[in-house]
Amino acid sequence: MTERRVAVIVDSRYGTTLALARAIAEGAESEGAEVRLCRVAIEEPEFSVDVEREDYQQAQAFYRELPRATAADLEWARGIVWGSPTRYGLMSTPLRAFIDEVAPLWRQGALIGKVGAAFTSTGGMHSGNEMTLLSLLMPFMQHGMVLVGVPHSVPELVATTKGGSPYGASAVTGFDGTRGVDDNELAIARALGARVARLAGQVRPEPSSVELAANRAPG
Q1: What is the CA radius of gyration of the chain?
Q2: Are 83 and 137 in contact, with CB atoms under 8 Å apart?
Q3: What is the tens place of the pLDDT at every residue in 12-69?
Q4: pLDDT tier at 218 (50, 70, 90 boundaries)?
């Protein structure tokens, strides 16, 4: 079995973060990785979401068929990429709830040494996409994981006029979604997925109990 195992965890409404997630999965698979594409729990209603929009209805038809992410998916993976829409420069509530749900893995030290990366989407260019990416990366650091971004050797990162960042994949769609996800944003997402897969095959996870370490701490 390949050690290039990547879990892509997504929260999506209108399909933008879902499009990035699928591109990340494609990039990982291009490097021979086994990929699990999963969603977080669905919470309704959300006051910022227009459920009458056609793109919402089309995206949800696919999104809701994805398997629901669990802690077991993170234990299985060597590389973990998660993402959500931006909410005031922060990750979405459902993704945050999932991160809280898998807190026992932190106590076990189960993710130490694994690879982590992030993605997000915003309506506007200055709506907090890089802040959201940084907030998505913080839990990986708490888990003792190795962070992966997008280097500027990726041509589309230099060429992009919308989304895409050294801190992860992103898309800027306009507040009504009409700008969509462009080719540069998708290419950056694929590059991120490929890089996570490559590095996931190189690193060696080093799980170690955080609770045991706390019990041994001096003082």
Answers
A1: 17
A2: no
A3: 999 999 999 999 999 999 999 999 999 999 887 677 788 888 888 999 999 999 999 9
A4: low
142: amino acid identity, one letter: Q
For the chain, what are the domain ranges? 5-216
What would the DSSP string read from start to end of 56-98?
HHHHHHHHTTSPBP-HHHHHH-SEEEEEEE-BTTB--HHHHHH
How far apart CA 21 and CA 169 sit, in angstroms, is: 9
For the domain spanning 5-216, the CATH number is: 3.40.50.360
d(CA 81, CA 192): 9
**Paired tokens of 121:** 């989407």
128-149 pLDDT, tens digit per residue, is: 899 999 999 999 999 999 999 9
Task: Compute CA distances 213 → 105, 116, 177, 218, 219, whole Å.
Answer: 14, 23, 48, 10, 13
Which residues lie below 8 Å from residue 44, measured CB to CB, with a gap of 6+? none
| Residue reference for tokens 């490559």 | 198
